[in-house]
Amino acid sequence: MNETLPPCPECSGTYTYEMGALLVCPECGHEWSLASPESQGDAAGSKVIKDSVGNVLADGDTVTVIKGLKVKGSPSGIKAGTKVRNIRLVEGVDGHDIDCKIDGFGPMQLKSSVVRKA
Questions:
Q1: Local structure of residue 40 (DSSP, 8 states)
Q2: Per-residue confidence of the chain (118 residues) as pLDDT tens digits?
Q3: Which of 6, 50, 53, 110 is the most buried (most CB within 10 A)?
């Protein structure tokens, strides 16, 4: 039965099995649809992150903050128009998907909805 089922797109495990309409990998616990395992595996590996106007962001891009942001512990915050260089895309917490270092503030995470690609 395993000869006809594709390997797991996450860990490449060969012991996949069917559970209803899904395929399941017992090694890593990943579940995916039988209809299109290749397309879902690619989408999970490379999540597309877009800025506030719809431009696709990539690691190393330079972005501009489009609105003033309050920062805990800072009296002034980050002003609109601040350029942030060399961003790194991450799967952050609460929608914070950009990891960066801002001059004067240090390392922090930003939401892609408050930046525009420069």
A1: H
A2: 445 788 888 888 888 888 877 888 888 888 887 664 344 444 445 678 999 999 999 999 999 999 999 988 888 899 999 999 999 999 878 889 999 999 888 999 999 999 999 8
A3: 110
C-alpha span between 87 and 51 (Å, rounded): 12
Report the run of H or E that residue 32 belongs to, with start and end: strand 31-33
53-57: long-range contacts, CB 8 A cutoff, minimum separation 24: 53/116, 53/117, 55/116, 55/117, 57/87, 57/89, 57/98, 57/112, 57/115, 57/117
36-37-39 Cα angle (round to 5): 70
Query: Distance between CA atoms of 68 and 57, rounded to whole angstroms?
Result: 21
Both tokens assigned to 26:
């017992």
